[in-house]
Input
Amino acid sequence: MLDLLRNSVIVFSILPFFPFILVFFIYRKWKNNERNALLVAMDVTTVFLIVSVSALFNNIFDSKSGFYLILLFLLIAVGMIGGAQNRMKGKVDITRMLRAVWRMAFAIMTCSYILFTIIGLFRYIFKTM
Output
């Protein structure tokens, strides 16, 4: 059972669009709400995208700091959005701030995943020639 869970996490990290599709259809069927299904699928997939993008970054740039750079990016985003909320409203709504950073991370990690996958494929193709 533990091997199944471990292998599922590995597959979902390598191909992060699988958990998106899986969560989207299960949640939509369960709650019958397409908008919330999309948001929940985005939230779940962000975890797998972070792992996948950090691994792709490490592979492409021969680095070991991909995860830490993503974590640094998220912390800077939390600080900037929290600072903007504090200036505009005088208080920080932690839930809204974290949700905004998490959804922004989904968009940026999706673009990064696509870009790094293309770069990695080209590096592999031209390395074998």
